[in-house]
């Protein structure tokens, strides 16, 4: 959890930077396994207009991220944030809104390891796939 003072104090560190890489890896892994596809959503603030968070839209239209888990869009809408859905996968757009998918996160998540994250996502989704088939 973020321990530095700021507007994200107490939030899961995966949601303070690596949310973009998490969404990218989860999107690819989920959609490779399941027929009910997920989408990527950008949680946008208005002033200045920039991406606040990247999340997954599950097939039931609930949101999902690596820190909070499954949740409603209400938590963002109540903060005055917009949800912009990436209907067609666009790596460049995701990279832009993530401020670089291939970067370090020295302040909030210095030990972030994309390979480890990908392995965890794949292992978890493999277990889910096996359990429902």
Structural features, described:
With 133 residues, the protein is an alpha+beta fold. A 5-stranded antiparallel beta sheet has the order 4-3-2-1-5. β3 (63-65) and β4 (69-71) form a beta hairpin. The protein is built from 4 helices and 5 strands. The model has no long low-confidence stretch (mean pLDDT 93). It is 34% helix and 20% strand.
The class by helix and strand makeup works out as: alpha+beta
Strand order of the largest sheet: 4-3-2-1-5
Radius of gyration over all CA atoms, rounded: 15 Å
Low-confidence stretches: none
Q: Can you tell me the overall shape? A: globular
Number of helices: 4
Question: Major sheet, described briefly?
Answer: 5 strands, antiparallel
Output mean pLDDT: 93
Tell me roughly what share of residues is in helical segments: 25-40%
N-to-C SSE string, H for helix and E for strand: HEEEEHEHH
Could you give the count of β-strands? 5
N-end to C-end Cα span: 35 Å
Percentage of residues in DSSP E strands: 15-25%
Task: Tell me briefly what this model is.
The protein contains four helices and five strands.
């Amino acid at each position: 959890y973020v321990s530095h003072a700021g507007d994200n104090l107490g939030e899961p560190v995966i949601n303070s930077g690596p949310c973009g890489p998490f969404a990218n890896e989860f999107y690819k892994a989920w959609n490779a396994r399941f027929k009910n596809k997920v989408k990527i959503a950008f949680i946008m603030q208005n002033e200045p207009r920039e991406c606040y968070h990247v999340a997954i839209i599950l097939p039931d239209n609930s949101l999902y991220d690596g820190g909070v888990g499954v949740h409603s869009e209400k938590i963002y809408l109540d903060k005055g944030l917009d949800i912009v859905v990436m209907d067609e996968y666009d790596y460049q757009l995701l990279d832009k809104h993530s401020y670089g998918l291939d970067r370090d996160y020295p302040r909030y998540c210095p030990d972030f390891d994309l390979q480890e994250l990908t392995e965890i996502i794949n292992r978890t989704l493999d277990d889910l796939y096996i359990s429902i088939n």
